[in-house]
Amino acid sequence: RKNVKGKIYAYILSDNKKEAMFLMPHVYFYNGKIDRALFDISVNALKGEHDFSVFANKDRSQPLRNNVCNIFEIGLIERPFVKIVYFYGNRFLYHMVRRMVYYLIKASTGALKKDILLNPFSADTPYTRQVLPPEPLFLIDVFYNQPIRRSK
Fold first, then answer.
1. E strand or H helix that includes residue 108
2. Percentage of the chain with pLDDT > 70?
3. Whole-number Å distance between alpha carbons of 49 and 68
């Protein structure tokens, strides 16, 4: 566990209950349409090395816990009635991915102001405390050697 250099997680979403109902409970249904431009702005602000305390569990027993993570890549794969949000980073905090997915849904459906999208790491950023269900979350890969940085 301590030798992990990177992980990839995926979370499955849908806005179409009729078409994706047979994927239940392994899909999270949301309302609204994802605006790809807003999604990209939100993702670019989350990428890189940051203190992800705003997306972390509040644990008063660990005041010196390291909440710094490096997110190498976040992407959105769109299929006819499902969307897959994937995260590739060096480490993830407990519930961090499910909180980031909720934040990205809210951000890309227009619920947040653009200044918050550009800087999501302030203590008063909305939509960072909601933890989505665990069933649509999948661990895709774990890297024990040097993490693979994909070139664009």
1. helix 96-108
2. 95
3. 7
Q: Buried (b) or exposed (e) across 5-29, using 16+ Cβ within 10 A?
A: ebbbbbbbbbbeeeebeebeeebbe
Q: Which residue has the tokens 């939100």?
A: 42
Q: How far apart are CA 74 and CA 101, in angstroms?
A: 10
**Any residues with CB less than 8 A from the CB of 71 and at least 6 apart, and which?**
46, 47, 48, 50, 87, 88, 89
pLDDT in tens, 58-100: 877 777 889 999 999 999 999 989 999 999 999 999 999 999 9
* Whole-structure pTM value: 0.90
Exposed/middle/buried for 96, CB within 10 Å: 0-12, 13-18, 19+? buried
What the block records as the tokens of 4 is: 């992990």
Paired with 84 in beta bridges are: 12, 77
Does 152 score more than 60 pLDDT? no
Q: For tokens 């980073």, what's the residue?
A: 89
d(CA 44, CA 73): 9
Q: At what angle do helices 36-46 and 96-108 cross, to 10 degrees?
A: 140
CA distance 14 to 80: 10
What tokens appear for 58 in the block? 């509040």
